Amino acid sequence: VVVVADRFFASSKTCSASGCGHKVDNLPLSIRQWTCPVCGAVHDRDVNAAKNLQEYAVSYTVSACGGEGAGSRCKPKAKPAPVKQGFNTMTTFS
Known about the structure:
Elements: E1 33-35, E2 42-44, H1 45-62
Antiparallel strand pairs: 1-2
């Protein structure tokens, strides 16, 4: 299953520390490590983004359609990953 996050989801700028979630307003791409001004957690920009995207995907699939009150109009953004179609081109010689 592939979960698509909005391109403006602030994965790098949101503190991934448990229970914090503070979003910094300005974080230029040149800043590779930052400290959350609320909880003091130190983040590597890319690792922090990965943690936030993982949490987003897990929480999205748990609360996706099918839950109580979802109704019949609910269309999840999660979709099956594409499967490459092809044929075996290996040749076996005896």
